[in-house]
Every structure is written in C-alpha cells, then in structure tokens.
Amino acid sequence: MSKTIWPMTKVAIVALIGAFLLWISLIGPVLHKSDVVTTPIPLVNGQTLDLKVLRGKVVVLNFWSPDCPPCIHELPELERLYQSYRSQGLVVVGIATPGSSKSKSLAAAAMAQVTYPLSVDQSGTIARAVGGIMVTPTQVIIDKEGHVIDKYQGVVSGQEPMDEILRALHQR
User: Fold this and answer.
1) What are the residues facing 58 on neighbouring strands?
2) 147 DSSP β-pair partners
3) Strands 48-49 and 148-153, how do they pair?
4) If you write DSSP's letter for every residue of 71-85 in order, what string do you get?
5) Is residue 16 predicted with pLDDT exceeding 90?
6) What is the CA radius of gyration of the chain?
7) Measuring CA to CA, which residue among 64, 69, 51, 65 is closest to residue 145?
8) Contact partners, residue 147, CB within 8 Å, separation at least 6
9) What's the pTM?
10) Could you tell me where the beta strands, DSSP code E, fall in the chain?
11) Distance (Å, rounded) from C-alpha 60 to C-alpha 68?
12) For 85, which of 51, 54, 90, 155 could close a Cys bridge (C-beta 3.0–4.6 Å)?
C-alpha cells in the first residue's frame, strides 16, 4: 500500500505547486502598485483622456460591465464620490470592460445619472495598462504622480477604499 501512496503524494505536491504558480501569475498584477499609467483612454464622447494631463489629481478608474448587477449598483455611489471630491482634485473614469456593449453601457450610466467620463475598453488595452482586471467591478486608484496605489476587486464595501482616496487627495 505504501508503494501507491508515495507516487500519489508526488502528484499531489506537483499539483499544489502548479496551482500556487498559477495563482501567483493571476494575482501578481493585482499586487503591483507602482506602475505609472500612461495609456490614453478613448471616451464614448469621441474625446481622449490623457492620464498624463491629470497629474496632480487623484484618479479612480472604475472597471465595470453593464451586465454586472453589483457594478450597476455602485455607479450612483461613484457619482456621489465624484461630485463630493472633484473640486479637491478627484477624477472618476468609468471604463466598461471588453465585451461590453457601448449602447448598454451608456444606458446604464444614464439611468444612474453618471456625469464622470466614460469609456468602453473593447480591446482591453486600458485593463492591461493597470495590470489586468480579473473581476468586475474593480476600482484602480492612481495617485497624483500617476502611480497605481491600489486596486479593489469585486464589490467594494467599507471605509478602506475611501480612506485610500482621501489619503491620496491630501498628499502633497
């Protein structure tokens, strides 16, 4: 019996190592917080938002999908955040993820009375520029120097993201 246990143990160890390496490759981009984001963002209104021009401001990139109920639920919250802090240098940009319909995205944003800039990242270029987006919604916080300082995946609740945004707004 011990002759069959040892080979199975080896297989299990190799499988665990493989799973760990896969997990690291997937979660690695999430943990990287120092990238400078320079990718221009094409907006649905035909203009392009150049993040380099926004240096000196704190930027929240909200990656969402019009087919994601938690994403839709967060749109009014993000609009309130934008309205409350834009005079202090906060910019919120809604970025619908690849596969999102432009018309559905615009309709969902209009229902939530979103006034901040919107984009549909059909090619995934913007998502790749911030280390990849694994789930929606995801908020990427960029500091005044243009560095990604945090990334919140899934439904964000609690005070932590807000504290991070306020810290970034008040940094010199």
Assistant:
1) 90
2) 36
3) unpaired
4) HHHHHHHHHHHHHHH
5) no
6) 19
7) 51
8) 33, 34, 35, 36, 37
9) 0.78
10) 41-42, 48-49, 58-64, 90-96, 118-120, 138-142, 148-153
11) 19
12) 90
Please give the structure tokens belonging to residue 75: 């749109």
Write the CA distances from 62 to 18, 20, 25, 38, 152, integer angstroms.
32, 28, 23, 16, 10
pLDDT greater at residue 27 or residue 130: 130
CA atoms within 13 A on the CB side of 91: 20
Task: Tell me how crowded residue 98 is: count the other CB atoms within 10 A of its CB.
Answer: 15
49 forms bridges with which residues in the sheet? 41
What tokens were used for 84? 């409350």
Q: Are 109 and 102 in contact (CB under 8 A)?
A: no
Q: Is the predicted pLDDT of residue 31 greater than 50, yes or no? A: no
Both tokens of 4, joined, read 């069959």
- CA atoms within a 13 Å half-sphere pointing along the CA-CB vector of 27: 6
Nearest Cα to 120, choosing from 37, 46, 59, 53?
Answer: 46
Residue bearing tokens 């955040």: 81
- Write out the two tokens for 86: 């834009």
Q: Which residue reads 């300082």 in tokens?
A: 149
Percentage of residues of the chain with pLDDT beyond 70: 77
